[in-house]
Amino acid sequence: MKRKHLTIVLFLVLATILSLSCSKQKDENSPITITIWHDKEDVVVDVIKQALEPLSPDIVVNFERKASLAETLKLVGNNPQTAPDMYLYAHDKIGVYVEMGILEPITNLVNSESIETLVPMTKTAATYKGKIYQLPIYFETLLFLYNKKYMKPEEVPSTTDELLTYVQNKTKYGHFGYIEQHSTPYYFGPWINGFGGKVIDEEGNPCLDSKETLQALAYHLKFVKYMPDETEYATVNTLFSEGKAHTTIGGPWLIPTIKKAGIDVGIANMPIINQTGKPLTPYLGVQGFQVLKTGVQNPEKKEAIIKILQILSSEEVEIKLALASGCAPAREGCYSYDSIKNDEIVMAMRNTAENAVPMPNIPEMDVMWTVTGNLLTAVNMSGKDIETSAKQAQEKALSLIENMK
Amino acid sequence: MKKILTLVLIALLSLSFIFAEAQEEKPSVVEKSEETSLSEIQVQKPEKIVVYAQVPEDWTFPCLWAWSKDGQNAFENWPGNQMIKDDNNPGWYYIYVPGFVDSVIVNANDGSIQTSDYAIEGKNAWITISNPETVSVSFDSLTGSTLPEYSEMYSVFAQLDPTWENPSIWAWENETGKNAFKTRPGREMKQNADGFYSMDIPVWCDSIIINANEGLVQTSDIKDIDPSSVWLIVAQDATFEVSYVDPNAVIVPDIKVYAKVPSTWDSPCIWAWSHPDGTNAFVNWPGQALEKTEDNWYVSDAPGWINSVIINGNEGSVQTSDIRIDSGKDIYITVNGPDSFELSYK
Predict the structure, then answer these.
(1) Which of A334, B241, B254, B301 has the maximum number of C-beta atoms within 10 A of its C-beta?
(2) Do A246 and B317 count as a contact with CB atoms less than 8 A apart?
(3) Would you list the domain boundaries of chain A?
(4) A–B: how many Cβ contacts below 8 A?
(5) How would DSSP label each residue in B261-273?
(6) pLDDT exceeds 90 at position B19
(7) Is the pTM of this model over 0.95?
């Protein structure tokens, strides 16, 4: 009898142990799903998917491409049911989302080395009110591009006055010495930054009527007079790709199309502005991962996101992402690799980053693009007085910012 | 006994596995050395070769058509590229072609007269033509030991006053004074079907003069020319207009895009581009706003070169998938939802 009882007890203990381990097995088998929104090309997302593959099957990463990611996030960022856990996007919307209260500081999720080894300007771009909200992965700047058929490397103007002389001599018969999207604020960036001006300062005060901005507008206008009236992206792209423009300032995204069109394109340093001694200084746009507060509310999800960010912080992954995107990696260590050192475009962007100005990431910048665009149109295309137009634009900006509050 | 036999079998099995692995490693070493020997044997083809031709007197503006054994053409269209008169070797014309060229045809008079195919197999060649059937090919130079300088060329087109006959072009590099041709009046220009005369000149030439009537009339110096196809219109008094835009080029006009969208789609826009090069018609998403017309269609202009569109609404938060269209035609799109639309050209 005792033996029989002992057997039953042992059986029950064994059954309990087995069922507990099965239960644990069953919980361990349920994957954690992390949703990442993005607006990137497949070639970029494929690199990320491949890098995160080792986390499978415990962590499943769901990528969703959103055409109007920035606006949609404003609508759903607070809703844990519809918001993503993370998103891959430019840094310039960080301020908007921080003020909405939806972003988690990235420093809560990555180790200090992941931040300290970044290219300094990318860390600046990712910082808002003293906290870092983005894990920068790669960045882009505008580049000075020239058609080697028309200009030898030694002939590339080193100053803007030299460029102006070149433009005056070469713009004729339907060819242009230099073109750019002259009335698009992003492309006016090199000029206003190079003169020491700003569209808006760090405290959210517009600076459209500052002395430096006025100087930039006046000098820039000298070049605009030698360009077509209409210089949207398609026009600039077409003119340069068809060999109708000798030089341009454009993004790295232009280069594949240009090369495909058979143009032997060269990349040079930005010319130095004679009046200030500073080079034309483009904006820096940094792409990286941001994490939503809703994504880290669940401890298991938080753990999963930490693991994801750890993988994405590696130099190898960042190099692959940068090369896939045609941009420059945000991590300093990447620049010791041959694949990066030997890439002319990437190294040109890295050099430009030394002086580039991160696009302002404060919420007030949201209204400045349109106001600045209207100012450029008034001055460049409608021939309006610079000082009057700048003053009007400044008043408009102040009014719009006031309405935001 | 059985135990011993089993142990022996196990040992033999283990040895055979080890041996198989060793065999597997060997091919990579063999492949590598094979690779090396193949690259050593492979003959490197030159980047460019020169083909010379001596043609009968009535063969005007000779051209060369050239191709490789695997069917790759050196030039886009028949009759190929025009050969260059060698001022240093009267009677001879030459042209540089890619090193992959294996066979050539020499032709003239706008391709209306030609030789048959001749194999040159990637070597400099001198082709002497008495008539289309009497041709000899030499791989030893018949024009001396010095080959002409290679230069990329660009085309100059000129439309001339009818009193300007037998035009020629004189070309030089302004900074150095280096001339493209040995003697004035320069190179005779070829008359084309569109009424323009043309001639190719080296890309290092940035200055030209168009002259005619045995050099009796000419333009002034036309300087600072980009090495890019250029069109001139020359008047009787030698004044001229210059353009890098072909005056005969067909300009694709804008098209109209008409769209009907679901009632829940506010402020519909069109996003448009050229596929597969990806050139966008508009700068920023969601693209150009469509304007409402009286009959409930929305409409917008778009460049005629686009072949892909997306109709979207609500500031780009709802949209169709990519819609491929025929370039140059007005389109009508009825959008029923993100995954459903009807496209027509009427």
Answers:
(1) A334
(2) no
(3) 32-140+285-358, 143-281+364-404
(4) 59
(5) --TT--S-EEEEE
(6) no
(7) no
